[in-house]
Design goal:
With 419 residues, the chain is α+β, with helices and mostly antiparallel strands. Among the domains are: 3-66; 77-96 and 349-418, Beta Barrel (conserved putative lor/sdh protein from methanococcus maripaludis s2 fold), CATH 2.40.420.20; 148-230, Helix Hairpins. It is built from six helices and 24 strands. The protein has helices at residues 20-71, 81-84, 148-180, 185-212, 216-222, 409-418, and strands at 8-11, 14-17, 77-78, 88-91, 93-109, 114-118, 123-128, 135-136, 141-146, 232-236, 241-246, 253-254, 260-265, 269-276, 289-293, 300-308, 319-326, 337-354, 359-360, 366-373, 376-381, 383-388, 391-396, 403-407. Strand 15 and strand 16 form a beta hairpin.
């Protein structure tokens, strides 16, 4: 029978069913409800106790790594024994470290062995004997100039020589007359003074011919009376070298002491104009050896720092340095670029590790992996101060005798990333 449809008699707060079965069922249902009401606070209390215990366990789990981080090394992880064979380790060692400064430079002619060929007479160019790139020797003729200055110089020299010879004969005769008492002493001294003046004129005119570049053979030929005066003057090379500039053309009229005909340079040495930043400037000294390379040549060139500038280039914000460089075979040409390494000295007790031991983190900072104990490694940040011959100099971050991974550190970096 459905309890909902049973007739009931309502007496105050109680419900009375018409038969005993209905009443009994209702009493049982009421007892169950009262029991549930009594158990509800107990269940809630037990749940609260369980939650508090779980929170305490979580707090302890969070506190445990922090205590380990205090006692251990952050980033320390273990490499399985079967993977250790992939790693090679080496000790951080101390050595004498050659300090080098890297820079670039531009090749220029050696100004101490480069000069210009300038004529000392006026006139048109009669003949040109050399061209660009022609090797020349000192005093070799480069061109000839047809000039009346040459004829005038030779004529002046001839006249001076004639006057000198004439006054020399007068002095000899006056000496004989003086010895015989036929003339006074002052007459002899007057003739001797004229002779000295004639000798001075000869020296002056001879010097003018030497300035013109007239050779001794031409001067000897000009002393012959009645000989033809050659009006062509050779412009000769002042040094041995190579013609690096040609500034004249056939028939061009040149002016004495002003027209530059050629530039000659001894290309056995060249200047390399380098650039040093402020941070490297205290290390560079005059006389430091330099190694220079160019990708076009399978060889090194040797040079020496000869000059350090006293100013800063406003375009590059660097200090210029001059490197005198040996140029065998004339391979280095003007305005060529070279890479230069200035060896500035030796630093003792410098810590070094192999290049393969140094990696870069996500901030592009140098790092290494240090063996904390067998099979366990830790990542460590370092500071470097140069690299050469397969080794990296360590400025800070490592101690002598520590063991670092020299080969296979990429494996550790990858493992550390995915851990």
């Amino acid at each position: 029978m459905n309890l909902a449809s049973a007739p009931v008699i309502r007496r105050g707060p109680l419900l009375l069913f018409r038969n005993r079965n209905q009443e009994k069922h209702f009493v049982m249902t009421a007892d169950i409800v009262r029991c549930r009401r009594r158990l509800l606070p107990l269940v809630l209390g037990l749940a609260l106790v369980w939650l508090q215990a779980a929170c305490r366990q979580a707090d302890q789990a969070e506190a445990k790594p922090s205590e380990e981080s205090k006692n251990g090394q952050p980033g320390l992880f273990t490499v399985p024994p079967d993977q250790l064979a992939r790693l090679k380790t080496t000790e951080v060692r101390s050595t004498n470290w050659p300090v080098a400064v890297h820079t670039t430079g531009t090749v220029d002619w050696d100004a101490d062995h480069t000069t210009q060929a300038i004529t000392q007479v006026n006139g048109p160019i009669a003949r040109i004997l050399v061209d660009l790139g022609t090797p020349v020797q000192k005093d070799q003729p480069l061109l000839y100039v047809s000039s009346p200055d040459v004829a005038n110089g030779i004529a002046t020299y001839r006249k001076a020589r004639n006057r000198e010879a004439f006054n020399k004969r007068i002095v000899d005769r006056m000496k004989e007359l003086l010895d015989r008492g036929a003339i006074a002493q002052k007459d002899y001294e007057s003739s001797e003074a004229d002779y000295n003046d004639a000798t001075t004129d000869v020296q002056n005119s001879l010097q003018a011919l030497r300035i013109f570049g007239i050779t001794a053979q031409d001067i000897d030929a000009s002393e012959k009376q009645g000989s033809t005066v050659n009006t062509e003057l050779a412009v000769r090379s002042p040094i041995s070298g190579v013609i690096v500039q040609k500034l004249i053309s056939p028939g061009m009229v040149i002016q004495a002491g002003q027209t530059v005909c050629f530039a000659i340079s001894d290309v056995a040495t060249v200047w390399v104009q380098g650039h040093i930043f402020d941070r490297d400037l205290p290390s560079v000294k005059s006389g430091d050896p330099v190694d220079e390379t160019n990708p076009s040549f399978d060889r090194n060139f040797r040079g020496t720092v000869s000059y350090i500038g006293s100013f800063v280039d406003p375009n590059t914000r660097t200090t210029p340095v001059r490197i005198v460089t040996q140029n065998p075979g004339g391979l280095l040409k003007k305005d060529m670029f070279v890479d230069a390494v200035v060896h500035t000295g030796m630093r003792s007790h410098m810590l070094v590790v192999p290049v393969g031991a140094v990696l870069r983190d996500d901030k592009n900072e140098p790092i290494v992996y240090v063996q904390a104990e067998p099979g366990k490694f830790a990542q460590r940040s370092i500071a470097t101060s140069g690299q050469q011959d397969g080794m990296v100099a360590i400025a800070s971050g490592l101690k002598e005798g520590e063991t670092v991974v020299s080969d296979g550190s990429l494996f550790l970096q990858f493992a550390n990333t995915i851990k």
